[in-house]
# Entry
Amino acid sequence: MEKFIKLGITEPVLKVIEDEKFEKPTDIQEKAIPVVLEGKDIIAASATGSGKTLAFAVGILKTTEKKKGIQTLILTPTRELAEQVSEAIRMFSKYLPLKIVVVYGGVSINPQIDKLRSADIVVGTPGRILDHMARGTINFSKIKTFVLDEADRMLDMGFIDDVEKIMRQCPDYRQTLLFSATMPPRITELSKKYMKSPVKVSAEEYVDTKKLTQVFYEVEDELKFSLLVHLLRNEKKGLVMIFCNSRRNVDFVADNLKFSGIEASAMHGGFTQEKRSKTMKHFTSQRVYALVCTDVAARGLDIPGVTHVYNYDIPSDSKEYIHRIGRTARAGKDGKAINILANRDFVNFRRVLRNNDVDVKREQMPFIEKVKLKKVQNSGRTGSRFGGKRSSGGSGGRFGGQRKSSGSGGRFNSQKKSGKRKYSGITNKA
Ligand code: AMP
# Structure
């Protein structure tokens, strides 16, 4: 606690920190909180999971007063992140009488209009905020602090022009807090245009890479789904996230997992906001243990208790890969990232491996049973051509569990890399 007190955090927030039993500030909190409390602009390089929400919450909870108009605006790239951030701010402000309102698209606008009339802090996504601006149902004239969360994601998702339109409407004398894992040129340009002598801080991710194991399996297309089922049944597990590259594959995997008796929920942008929120609630409360999702749906989420991340499809670049695997090995816990490679994944996997920070080792193919599928997809993209009971493995088959883990049979050969690296162990470069 002493370290938190030294940072200058105000009493009502200190009480919450005590309730939450946080032992010491995270790296970003130590670096950012004094700057934020001084009222300076800040550019902070830190990802979700670093404890950054508390880093900006201490500032806004010090300056925001009850019923004096909207004094804080926090922009996030996705609805789920808006929910997550607003929940966190609600928690950190539990001893303060402030009203926090979350606004995003995909749900009815009228209840939001009502709530905005008495909001002190607003958390929202750019599209819906612009909508409220156009209707005149949001007033920015009293804004003291503007927080841009996951700025680089805003750019990736094509929201940056919307963000700029919103920034232009906020009073000039506001404090601006910008959080971004990376600083692409467009974000730098935005910061030069709209920020006042920002202090730059960067912090290590809270994800502990020493506690993160990354492995891959090479598998025939027809056994891809069966291997997933085998691993889900045999790996020691907490919560599990399974990433696919398309909504169609998410539906395919989730449907067939349920058919195989494995509790799973699907989450992608094709579902209504209501369904997405319900799915997240079930997952975070551990009512289902496997969440099958696309990248967009899971972006930036911090879900405690995720022990395994599966890449059922390999993402097309290393940035997305690192984002995905960062859902596990958080807050000092162990985590494992498992890549299931079939023919269609090799091109993407090569791209991912171009990043020297990706350190993944081959895992021996276990003996597996071929799983019966609920429905057959005609493209064969998800290994759905097979529905039979034929079992794989055994000494005669290619996937007999006999192949050496670093053997020459696979396309990706493991080799030790030297030099300074963020991750330790064996690296694969293809
Ligand atoms: P964030 O990066 O803000 O999404 O925070 C990630 C997680 O870390 C959240 O569940 C926070 O409640 C938690 N957290 C934030 N600060 C600390 C801290 N100093 N010690 C332990 N956990 C923390």
Notes: The first strand starts at residue 42 and ends at 45. Residues 378-409, 414-430 have pLDDT under 50 and may be disordered. Residues 212-410 form a domain with the Rossmann fold fold (CATH 3.40.50.300).
